[in-house]
Design goal:
membrane; Phageshock_PspC_N; mainly alpha; transmembrane; transmembrane helix; PspC domain-containing protein
Length: 76
Amino acid sequence: MNYRREYTREKVVSQGLSKDIVNKKLTGVCAGIANHYEYPRVVVRAAAIGALIFLPVATGVAYVVASALLPSQRAY
């Protein structure tokens, strides 16, 4: 039994940011960001493609760095 009460309606995100290996297309960075912030994966991927069109170098470097540094989420 759990006697801990919830006093707020805000959901606390307890998991850290990680790549999603289950729903990945390339490396799982966009799917991991979508899972962490609870956004639809399609929206995050569309925003990444839009950023890649307008700022290709910065977005490409950020994606490569994120794919190298973010840990992979364990599939349960």
